[in-house]
Design goal:
With 83 residues, the protein is mostly helical. It has 2 helices and 2 strands. It is globular.
Length: 83
């Protein structure tokens, strides 16, 4: 799932969010995060350049856009240009 790859900044609140517990099972972490996101926040994460969600400590993230041709990270194409 895409949400697993979201960059998470420092903890907010009391630090009791299960999605931050790296020792918890991945499925439980994902379900916890999804339960905390509003519908609008979930929709905002479906675009190429996802905004930050400050209340949960989720940084903005650029997902890239070349999944049809394989995994391409933004900015990596400069390393594969032909001379």
């Amino acid at each position: 799932m895409t949400l697993c790859a979201l960059p998470l900044s420092g903890q907010t609140g009391g630090g009791t969010e299960l999605f931050r517990d790296m020792k918890a099972p991945q499925h439980e972490r994902i379900m916890d995060l999804l339960s905390r996101l509003t519908v609008e926040e979930k929709i905002s994460l479906l675009v190429n350049d996802a905004p930050a969600i400050g209340r949960l400590g989720i940084d903005k993230y650029n997902h890239g856009n070349e999944a049809l041709h394989g995994v391409v990270r933004p900015g990596i194409s400069r390393y594969f240009r032909r001379p």
